[in-house]
Amino acid sequence: MANITLKAVRKSFGSFEVIKGIDLEIRKGEFMVFVGPSGCGKSTLLRLISGLEEITSGDLMFDDARVNNVIPSERGIAMVFQSYVLYPHMKVYDNLAFGMKLGKRDKSEIDTRVRKAAEMLQIDHLLDRLPRQLSGGQRQRVAIGRAIVRDPRVFLFDEPLSNLDAALRVATRLEIAKPHHDMNDVTMIYVTHDQVEAMTLADRICVLRDGVVEQVGTPAELYEKPNSVFVAGFIGSPKMNFLTGTFADAVGCTTLGIRAEHIDIVDQADATWTGTVVHAEDLGSDHFLFVDIGADEPVVVRRSGKLDTGMLGQVVSLRPQAENLHRFGPDDKPLG
Amino acid sequence: MNRSMPRTIAFYACVLLIVLIAVFPFYYAIMTSFETGTAIFRPNILPESFSWDNYKAIFTRRGFVRSVANSVFIASITVGAALLLAVTASYALARVSFRGRGLLLMTILGVSMFPQIAVLSGLYELINLLGLYNKPWALVLSYTIFTLPFTVWVLTTFMRDLPMEIEEAAIVDGATPWVIITRVFMPLLWPALVTTGLLAFIGAWNEFLFALTFTISADQRTVPVAIALLSGASQQEIPWGPIMAVSVLVTIPLIVLVRVFQRKIVAGLTAGGVKG
């Protein structure tokens, strides 16, 4: 329920500047994901928004009110931590109710809201248990429940899935997406280093690098129109192929980027590049060929269907789809 | 592990020896407390005679019950004061970063390195200045001073190990530092609180030098002083029987306390709060 605006926000720890001036607008009801490699400042940025860290300079506005000096509990936020911290000595019910009890809310109101949130997350049968009696997935749901009962204006998630195993991660991802659909007024900010999580959950993604914003946009925008080599390489799996030297010169740029699915295998006559298949990965529904065309690294080509094992060691002819070339100049920014 | 027979025997022989050496003085004290007259002065392993006379003598003696009451009062207040100060101090030392934190911790530790006798005269002046001489508060003050360094250090270490995120979650929930300490940290620190509290209690209960120096009248004495100043029928007689009886009696509360709280020291209370 809040528009969040960051104006030239900076954060230093001692003489070390972590956040180097960020301007960003997060819209009401939006699911915004901060993504970037470790050490890029994404978690710090989230903690600045939560109020757990103090902003060194710049303005942080919630709905046009400056909240730089407002304490976390009065900002109307709820936070889910990476290691889903629950109070170990309190039952699930008390864990959910703790914040409201501190806020001196009415007992019956607390009860209604705790039970409603528990029902929503299907943890209502666990209310009398202690955290140590729960499984990892259940604990994470309690942590999300604790955020929901607070009825926040802004939800903050700090890599909430990184402690879960792969199967549980997908299931919990759904549970995080659900409150977003159910409470479409609530602004959500989600930090992750996993670009798949970012792509699947986000309305918009903010890619961070070394404390500055590289690019903000919808997942599709970032995928289709990355505005730097860094974003192009960070978003998408497998990683975008980058070619330099003569390969790039041929299309008049410094770095040529092309995604694996945008390279076709063609007849020798139509070939732009030729090379040997040095490695192959079969994922069942599709497969990847690693073709050595004489560049620094083999080019990855994605094809649908099962892998024909006879491909390995073969010489193939490749042609990138001209409309899907990403041309970057010497400053790593896209050309024209 | 499959140990050979002689090694096992040697192991248990060692254990037995250690237990014997550790327990024998207490055994001898208990045995002596049931003996009277000249039987006390004859070395023996098994009691020669058995009587409750020494215990009866203690309770008919003026001031004994008063001494126990003094000791209970002083030790309890000391534990309470020490834990309150130590918990709040260790929260600051473990969680609030400020300039000179390390130095302060070292200084606190340094205080406990001085032998009691070295600070005795200074402390005496201080207590006179505060007008506490011959009052129980003199002992509460001095015991708290000597207990705090240890208590603060132990609790600081414990508190440092509590996950930062629990505190942050509480902050987001709207908890003030006082609420964090009392409603989030204290329940998690139970084992540490019980342990340090118990040690503080035992220290205060058994302390002799300060208790002797800072009290003058018989009705302000604590148990250890009362024991030491127990006098016999004549100047030449040391009443060993009653002394042993009192010693045995005043040890009982400590044993009871340890037994009670032993159950409360549940390790791994934090397990499950974070990750898992």
Commentary on this structure:
The complex is a heterodimer of chains A (336) and B (276). By secondary structure, chain A is of the alpha+beta class. Chain A has 2 domains: 4-233, Rossmann fold (3-Layer(aba) Sandwich), CATH 3.40.50; 239-328, Nucleic acid-binding proteins (OB fold (Dihydrolipoamide Acetyltransferase, E2P), Beta Barrel), CATH 2.40.50. Chain A has helices at 42-50, 92-102, 107-120, 136-149, 166-182, 195-201, 219-224, 229-234, 246-249, and strands at residues 4-13, 16-26, 31-35, 57-62, 65-66, 77-80, 154-158, 187-192, 204-209, 212-217, 241-243, 255-258, 263-265, 273-282, 286-292, 299-304, 315-320, 326-328. Chain A has a 6-stranded mixed β-sheet, sandwiched between helices. Chain A has a 5-stranded antiparallel β-sheet with strand order 13-17-14-15-16, with no helix packed on it. A 4-stranded antiparallel β-sheet of chain A has the order 2-1-4-5, with helices on one face. In chain A, strand 4 (57-62) and strand 5 form a beta hairpin. In chain A, helix 2 (92-102) packs across helix 3 (107-120) and helix 4 (136-149) packs parallel to helix 5 (166-182). The longest helix of chain A has 17 residues, at 166-182. Chain A is globular. With 276 residues, chain B is mainly alpha-helical. Chain B folds into 2 domains: 5-51, no CATH class; 61-262, Orthogonal Bundle (MetI-like fold). Chain B is globular and about 70 Å long. Chain B starts with a helix and ends in a 14-residue tail after the last helix. The interface between A and B is medium-sized, with 32 and 23 residues.
